[in-house]
Design brief:
single chain; about 190 residues; SH3 type barrels; OB fold (Dihydrolipoamide Acetyltransferase, E2P); five-stranded antiparallel β-sheet; 17 strands; about 0% helix
Length: about 190
């Protein structure tokens, strides 16, 4: 543990450690009731399991600061259920399991640079860029002039992820996909 932080220093996105497990604060609210002492309502998500807790802490309580480090790493390849990453500065490699990656695996293509989160020297999570460009490998052909507002069709991307896209998208097109919600943003390039 790298030290302690007081509840008065809480902010969204702050990483804290409770009972030896790292969490990130998703929401907090300082409450000062008319009677009794002040307290802090929090909503925290585990960086290890993803479970969400909503503990109430007394104002002035101290919680630990986890030994967290983030490194920019390049995604290399998948072997079985393990996804391998390389530190571009010293060429050290590490891997994360499919279960740990969760939905992030849908947006990983070879050579993409991501931020890998380490806790006590062990890789525990990946932070993706807000959007990635992925090529369409399978979809029904687009029909010229078929621009009905709001009409969508499924398209399979190079990572195996399926996304809903407008009717004018064709196989070979490169699309910008939002990694936060997995939705189509725009077409970057048309397939040749």
């Amino acid at each position: 543990m790298a030290g302690f932080v007081d509840t008065s220093e809480f902010r969204n996105g702050l990483k804290i450690e409770i009972d030896g497990e790292p969490f990130v604060i998703e929401y907090f609210q300082h409450v000062k009731p008319g009677k009794g002492s002040a307290f802090v309502r929090t909503k925290i998500r585990s960086l290890l399991s993803g479970r969400v807790l909503e503990p109430t802490l007394k104002s002035g309580d101290k919680v630990g600061v986890p030994d967290i480090e983030e490194k920019d790493m390049q995604f290399l390849y998948v072997q079985g259920e393990d996804y391998y990453f390389m530190d571009t500065r010293n060429y050290e490699q590490t891997f994360l399991g499919e279960k740990v990656l969760g939905e992030a695996k849908n947006f990983l293509k070879e050579n993409i640079t991501v931020s890998v989160v380490f806790w006590n020297g062990k890789a525990i999570a990946v932070n993706l860029p807000n959007s990635v460009d992925l090529k369409v490998t399978e979809c029904d052909p687009g029909v010229r002039g078929d621009t009905v507002s709001g009409a969508l069709k499924p398209a399979k991307l190079e990572t195996g992820y399926t996304v809903s896209v407008p009717l004018f998208i064709n196989e070979g097109d490169v699309l910008k996909i939002d990694t936060r919600d997995g939705k189509y943003l725009t077409r970057v390039a048309t397939g040749g």
